[in-house]
TrEMBL record:
Protein name: TIGR02677 family protein
Superkingdom of the source species: Bacteria
Stored InterPro entries: CHP02677 (IPR013493)
Organism: Nocardiopsis flavescens
Pfam families per the UniProt record, alphabetical: DUF2397
Length: 511
């Protein structure tokens, strides 16, 4: 109802109501917020009108319980209250009874109270400040209550109990409004979690199971109750919708609305309620739309979970990328390099306008603007450099015989070192000495080949062998295992005994 009436306001009325929020845009907006909190505290104890001295005393009480409460005297408070009066947040009245002497009577003794719209504006600000994302949820337990209220509403209308009709309709209207608010708030918050780069992955991963179970149970409950709720709505209408709405309007006690306005209001409320659960004219029910939105949100949660899991497995995510970028920018030698790096990272460049002729220029009117004319494909070369792409001439093949000879020489030296290390391992073994880098590399290669050739016989691992550079390694199952010392530390082989020998010797031993 409030949203519908807000759509009908003209621009002047909207501008006047936006003026109610002027106190939030001032430099000392927190001070104005505490003044309004003090005014509300007096309002809660039924002191609707309050003077500057009363508000100063209330601020002192608030300062004893809360941090950040400003200390204001009566003169400063009166000035700020007058500013709120100019914004129409509060009303100002002159109270001569507060003047104890002629001097105080000559000085204006004003009292202040909330205006109706001003109080709504203040509560809207407090609602934003007190909002917490962890409070959002989908109310799946409400469907059973709605079904019970619809059946009781049909019984009350058949029996002609007008007061029961009004109570059930009011309760249904409040419940549906709360469910719509909860679902909208839940999906907005969930959308922020799925799209925000500032969301904590640890927090999301901690509550992912509860979130998925919550949405799955809501969809299951909605699927279970939606057909019954649709039948219950139609049963209520079969008892006489006109009579039902007339009884609700007659029992309604809103004094500042005549009967026709109340009847029209209840008719709109019932139309919104039945739109939740019934389908007419090909338009889906709002409950079905909510079900589709929740299913889509569940897919988004699963996709985000997969993305976070892959990022954790790879060790790179958006947060680490930004930290590395910040370190690079900090280490740049001067500001020009920092700006160039940030411009390249975020693609912040000056606007460049390009124009290319259409393939069939007769199809486009010469009077068509750039905005209305169809787009054309622009090559990457033209976009980056401003020059049209050309095939160009083939570039000559560059040869560097010196570099190739050097690489070849290093390869020959490495192969010779590996052969010598393999020979040392075959003659001296791997135990009772410390292996250097080359010996360790050859030994690890031999062990790798032996492990790759292992086979399982009768549920147990048999011995394994591997050869390289004329050396043969054999891994024999052993209870004690073996240990090899290297320059980098100790290499433990639990459950395996390591044997090294020339290839021909171990073959003879195997026979």
């Amino acid at each position: 109802m409030a949203e519908r009436s807000a759509l009908d306001l003209d621009a002047l009325t909207i501008s006047d109501r936006f003026q109610l929020f002027n106190f939030t845009r001032r430099d000392d907006h927190v001070t104005y917020l505490w003044i309004l909190r003090a005014l509300e505290r007096l309002r809660e104890v039924h002191r609707v009108q309050a003077g500057a001295e009363d508000l100063a005393a209330t601020l002192r009480e608030l300062a004893a319980a809360h941090d950040g409460v400003p200390a204001l005297d009566a003169a400063d408070l009166r000035y700020r209250l007058d500013e709120l009066y100019a914004d129409r947040v509060v009303h100002r009245f002159d109270d001569a009874s507060r003047a104890g002497n002629l001097a105080r009577y000559r000085n204006r003794q004003s009292v202040y109270q909330f205006s109706e719209l001003g109080y709504r504006a203040y509560r809207a600000v407090e609602g934003v400040l007190s909002a917490r994302s962890e409070d959002v949820n989908l109310s799946r337990l409400v469907f059973s209550d709605v079904l019970e209220d619809l059946r009781a509403l049909a019984d009350a209308n058949r029996a002609g109990r007008a007061e029961h009709v009004y109570r059930r309709l009011s309760r249904l209207d409040s419940v549906m409004e709360d469910m719509g608010r909860r679902s909208a708030q839940f999906h907005v918050t969930l959308g922020e979690i799925l799209r925000s780069t500032d969301a904590s992955p640890d927090t999301f991963l901690k509550y992912k199971n509860a979130l998925l179970v919550h949405m799955t149970e809501f969809m299951a409950e909605l699927d279970r109750y939606q057909p019954r709720l649709e039948r219950a709505v139609r049963e209520v209408e079969e008892t006489g919708l006109t009579t039902l709405l007339a009884r609700a309007a007659d029992t309604d006690e809103r004094l500042f609305m005549d009967r026709d306005e109340r009847l029209d209001d209840w008719r709109r409320r019932w139309s919104a309620l039945r739109g939740w659960f019934t389908t007419e004219g090909g338009a889906p029910a709002r409950a079905a739309e909510l079900h589709a939105a929740t299913r889509s949100a569940t897919s988004g949660v699963i996709a985000l979970l997969r993305q976070l899991t892959e990022a954790r497995r790879g060790g790179v995510n958006r947060s680490t990328q930004l930290r590395h970028l910040a370190q690079w920018v900090f280490d740049t030698p001067h500001d020009g390099a920092a700006h160039a790096l940030m411009g390249a990272a975020f693609n912040v460049r000056s606007a460049r306008h390009l124009g290319v002729a259409h393939e069939d220029d007769e199809q486009i009117s010469p009077n068509a603007t750039w905005w209305d004319a169809p787009g054309v494909e622009v090559s990457v070369t033209l976009f980056r450099s401003g020059k049209a792409p050309t095939a160009g001439v083939p570039k000559p093949v560059r040869r560097n015989p010196n570099a190739r000879a050097e690489i070849r020489r290093r390869q020959v030296a490495d192969r010779a070192a590996d052969r010598q290390a393999a020979a040392r391992l075959a003659e001296e073994g791997a135990h009772d000495r410390v292996l250097d880098e080359v010996d360790t590399r050859v030994l690890l290669r031999l062990i790798t080949r032996a492990l790759e050739s292992r086979a399982v016989v009768a549920g147990l691992l048999s011995s394994a062998t591997g050869t390289d550079e004329g050396t043969l390694v054999r891994l024999v199952p052993s209870d004690t295992g073996s240990t090899v010392r290297t320059t980098r530390g100790l290499l433990h082989l639990p459950g395996m005994r390591l044997e090294l020998a020339p290839r021909a010797r171990l073959r003879g031993a195997a026979r």
